[in-house]
Design brief:
alpha/beta; TIM Barrel; binds 1,3-dihydroxyacetonephosphate
Length: about 250
C-alpha cells in the first residue's frame, strides 16, 4: 500500500472542500486506486465537517497534531486524540517539525503516539534532521534518536507510519539526492525493525514533493508514500503527483 498524505497546515475554510472534491473524484475513478490511500489533514476547525462529508467517499481525514492527554483535561485550547476520533479523524500526524520547533519534546511525543493509538487513530510519526545536522553528517544518528526515544515495541506497529521530512527540504524546493534518500530510508527501516522486532512500518518521504520531482522519488522502492504540504492545497498539483507516480 502506498500513501499520499496532504498536510494543509494553516490553510483552509469550509468552502476549500471543493479542492478535496476534485481529488476525491479523480481518486474514485483511478484504475490504480486500490494501490494507494489518500489522507488529508486539514486544520482542526474543518475535521468534523470534512469527515462527515467524506464519510462514504474514498478520502480519509486526519489531524495535524493532538494533545498529549487522552481524553479531557484543563489545558486551554488543547485537543485530545479522543476528541479527534469522536469527530471522525482516522489519522493524526505527530512530531511535525513545526511542532517540535514550538516545543514538542520526545516525552510529549511519546504520550501523543500512545494516546492516539489507544484511541484507534493511525499515527504518522514525523522525523527529520535540520540543515546543520545534515551538514555535520549527523542525519542518521539524529533519525535513530528521534525514533528510539519515542517508539516502543509495545506500540501497535500496524497503526504507525513514519514520515521522514528533512527540515531543510520543507517548503524550500530542495530535495535529497536519490542516493542519499535511499540510504536514509533503508536506515530508518532498519531502526524500525529493531524497535518492533518485526518488519518495518511504512516509511514516507516529505519535503517539497511535487508533480515533477515525483519521477525521481518513485524510483526509490523503499519509500512507501509521501507527505505533501504546498502541493496538497491545489487539486491539480496533488493529482499530478499521483498521476506521475503511476505513469
Ligand atoms: P512541503 O511539501 O510544502 O515542502 O511541506 C512538507 C511538509 O511539511 C508536510 O508535512
Amino acid at each position: 500500500m502506498r500513501y499520499f498524505i496532504g498536510n494543509w497546515k494553516m490553510f483552509g475554510v469550509p468552502k476549500s472542500v471543493n479542492i478535496l472534491n476534485k481529488i476525491n473524484s479523480y481518486y474514485s475513478r483511478d484504475k490504480n486506486r486500490n494501490k494507494y490511500r489518500v489522507v488529508i489533514t486539514p486544520p482542526y476547525t474543518l475535521i468534523e465537517s470534512y469527515s462527515r462529508y467524506f464519510k462514504n467517499k474514498r478520502i480519509l481525514i486526519g489531524s495535524q497534531n493532538c494533545y498529549q492527554k487522552e481524553q479531557f483535561s484543563s489545558n486551554t485550547a488543547a485537543i485530545s486524540p479522543y476528541m479527534l476520533k469522536s469527530v471522525g479523524a482516522k489519522y493524526t500526524l505527530v512530531g511535525h517539525s513545526d511542532n517540535r520547533g514550538e516545543g514538542d519534546t520526545d516525552l510529549m511525543l511519546k504520550d501523543k503516539v500512545r494516546y492516539a493509538l489507544n484511541n484507534n487513530l493511525k499515527v504518522v510519526f514525523c522525523i527529520g534532521e535540520n540543515k546543520i545536522e545534515k551538514k555535520n553528517k549527523k542525519t542518521l544518528s539524529v533519525l535513530t534518536r528521534q525514533l528510539t526515544k519515542v517508539l516502543e515495541k509495545k506500540f501497535n506497529r500496524n497503526n504507525i507510519i513514519v514520515a521522514y521530512e528533512p527540515i531543510w527540504s520543507i517548503g524550500t524546493g530542495k530535495i535529497p539526492t536519490a542516493h542519499e534518500l535511499k540510504k536514509t530510508t533503508i536506515h530508518i527501516k532498519k531502526v524500525l525493525k529493531r524497535i518492533f522486532k518485526k518488519t518495518s512500518p511504512a516509511v514516507l518521504y516529505g519535503g517539497s514533493v511535487d508533480g515533477s520531482n515525483i519521477e525521481m522519488f518513485k524510483e526509490i522502492k523503499e519509500i512507501d508514500g509521501f507527505l505533501i504540504g504546498g502541493a496538497s492545497k491545489t487539486s491539480k498539483k496533488f493529482i499530478d503527483i499521483i498521476k506521475n507516480y503511476y505513469r
